[in-house]
Design brief:
By secondary structure, the protein is mainly beta. The protein is 13% helix and 46% strand.
Length: 123
């Protein structure tokens, strides 16, 4: 699971096995240890929302995905889901959750064996 935060947007990418684990167990979590604490981000299946949602509590960012979507996502071709979450400040938090595709750039050196095949691989 990968996270990208930029301004008022949060993007999470998940591999094939993570999508399957989310469907089976309803939760994924990643942690990054820092000298003075641990940063966590969580993808949580929930019956409480009918769209993506997010929160921040105890040093962790949690993105919520509707349970009905989480359980079916592994078996369909949907690449991802997005939602503009209205904030009490009047602003918006853009949420994007996507399946992680293999890069077509040969310069990328990370293990991508568990990522989805890139539909643009013939470029």
């Amino acid at each position: 699971m990968k996270i990208r935060i930029r301004g008022n947007s949060i993007r999470i990418r998940v591999s094939r096995s993570e999508v399957e684990l989310l469907a089976a167990e309803g939760r994924l979590e990643e942690k990054t240890e820092l000298p003075n604490g641990t940063f966590s981000y969580i993808l949580q299946s929930s019956n409480k929302y009918d769209h993506l949602n997010a929160g921040y509590e105890h040093g962790a960012i949690t993105m919520y995905i509707p349970h009905s979507i989480a359980t079916q996502w592994a078996g369909n071709d949907t690449v991802g889901y997005e939602y503009n979450l209205p904030l009490t400040s009047g602003g918006v938090l853009y949420l994007l959750l996507e399946k992680d595709f293999k890069c077509i750039d040969a310069a990328v050196k990370e293990d991508q064996s568990d990522n989805y095949e890139n539909p643009l691989k013939s470029c």
